[in-house]
Design a protein that fits this description.
Elements (H helix, E strand, L loop, with lengths): L11 E9 L13 E10 L2 E2 L2 H7 L17 H7 L15 E4 L6 E2 L3 E2 L2 E4 L1 H8 L1
Antiparallel strand pairs: 1-2, 2-3, 4-7, 5-6
Length: about 130
């Protein structure tokens, strides 16, 4: 009997952010030095939920900084969006935070449920 194993080819896309010497916030990096941190993985046509993402990018140093999983509270999140960057070695303000549900979901009018709350300090700096 011929036993063949058919492997399903996975099509995953890693999304992230390049930082360092690419914008006004240098994150205490030297000229020409760039770094990358992941913030999402798409598997086929769907994005991974929070637990699956953490399992697929297990090293904290390879992911954008996180404040953890918590209930939605606008006041708490507004405070988290402000302050100094939590990227190790950075000596600049925080750009803001990304808010997304634990389990991926879509809204009929908005599409994917995920928002960025930009810090007021970053908006003020950008307006100058």
């Amino acid at each position: 009997m011929d036993r063949r194993v058919v492997l399903r080819q996975r099509r995953q896309v890693l999304y992230g952010e390049t930082y360092g010497w690419v914008q006004s916030l240098k994150y205490e990096r030297r000229p020409g030095k760039l770094f990358f941190r992941a913030f999402d993985v798409m598997d086929g046509t769907e994005y991974l939920g929070a637990d699956a993402f953490l399992a697929s990018v297990p090293l904290e140093s390879q992911r954008v900084p996180s404040f953890g999983i918590m209930p939605f509270d606008f006041e708490v999140l507004s405070k988290l969006a402000e302050g100094q960057s939590t990227v190790p070695g950075a000596n600049n303000i925080r750009e803001g935070i990304v808010i997304k549900p634990v389990e991926e979901r879509r809204h009929y009018a908005l599409g994917r449920v995920m928002v960025k709350m930009v810090s007021n300090a970053y908006l003020e700096k950008s307006a100058r």
